[in-house]
Amino acid sequence: MSSQSYHNSRVDRKPTKATAALQRQYDKQQRRKIPEGTLPDPTLEIPIDDYGSFVTYLKSSKRILALLGAGLSAASGIPTFRGAGGFWREHDAMQLATPEAFHKDPSLVWQFYNYRRHMASKAKPNRGNVALAKLAGRKPESLAISQNIDGLSSRAGHPSSSLLHIHGSIFDIRCTNLDCSYISLDNEDDPVVPALQLSEDHDISDAQSPIASIPVASLPHCPQCASILRPAVVWFGEQTPLSCRERIHSWLDQGPVDLMLVVGTSATVWPAAVYIHSARLKGARIAVFNTEDPGINVDDESQRLREQDWFFKGDAATVVPDVLKEVIGMVVEVQD
Fold first, then answer.
1. Which residues are catalytically annotated?
2. How far apart are CA 134 and CA 155, in angstroms?
């Protein structure tokens, strides 16, 4: 972007304090003779000094650990079920995502996950997904740990060799009988069984809309042993797969970590805090991309962002591609 076009892009509206500060930073950048290509999108209000120092460090980084959370999928229309929006109908989504809830009311839980499967199948990867996939291609020694079950990172072209879905996939279904090994992978049937067919007349996620009481006999059942099937995702109270944990530990043991990206998730809750602590022990600097400010006053010092770390506030689908563009190139909107 030329200096003239930068100025022209702002003349039609009265500058806010933030945009005025960005303009001053831009002018400072020009005096320092920093190439104009390193300028962040002015609408994102990213501090130029933070942007410049991060890009410089990113270019020299080889071993990068990324943790991907629900905020990365939000721009694709995937409900995050976080904070005040953490309810499906009148139910706490975290309470529905438990073995106890499934045992108590498998019909309700299956309808919850059938709705989520439907939303995920309609969604398309966003620019943040694509940017991180491109970064993985440029940095082959990297590893991404995804907490998301929607499959958007894979559909964006993220190399499978450097992507771990620690909470599973919403498109995988397995038998609840522990003595049965049946699992259906990448099952995109919508609905899984006819009884779960969503109505076109109302939104099942709306608590004011009616919801069917589906008999257990009409829910998905195992073709091998006839037991009821369940989504093959990790519910609250369940452990992440041993293979995932071993892969992460193995990757960390292979050498120093240059950089950790925390995208669309809080930097102060489990498991982000655990991975951040592990990455720090390996020498990593931390960069957080999130709409919520990271905790800087938490009691555990290992969870705090430090002076050498970065925080880029905003929608990950917009901020991540802009901050990574010097390494991966420009990322356009994903087409249907």
1. 167
2. 12
